[in-house]
Amino acid sequence: MNRRERLLASIIGPEMDETKAKMLDTTIRFILGDMGQQYIKMWKAEGPGVMVFQPSNKKRSMFFLTLEELNAAKEDSERNNKDDLVESFRRILEAAQKINPEEKAAYVINDDEGMRYFEIDYNEINDKPDLAPCSIE
After folding, report:
1. Which among 37, 34, 31, 63 has a CA at the least distance from the CA of 50?
2. Nearest Cα to 36, choosing from 115, 136, 122, 110?
3. Residue 70 above 90 pLDDT?
4. Which of 8, 16, 23, 39 has its CA 20 to 30 A from that of 32?
């Protein structure tokens, strides 16, 4: 069972309870809505980019990277011969350039499992949302 599955199981419990599932769904919608508002604020202040979460980094757990900063990180990885990071940054840049912040938000989670890119499409969140992230590894 991965971290996400353990978290869901701890909230919903061993038996699927419809009330708990609805509460969880509502909570997720609130969190995603708040994150989307913050993403738009950062986009307007900084320009196009991605919101980055680093849960294990206490001093810099959340920040915004512009497309220029992502490109600089890619170039730095190229200089240091870190081909896996180069490819990750290339894919993130390619996807993030296409984001319309009024419709979607772009996030990167950088943790012990690696660096993953997620897009949340706010037009797709309806009564039965598919909140599975788009992962670029």
Report:
1. 63
2. 122
3. yes
4. 16
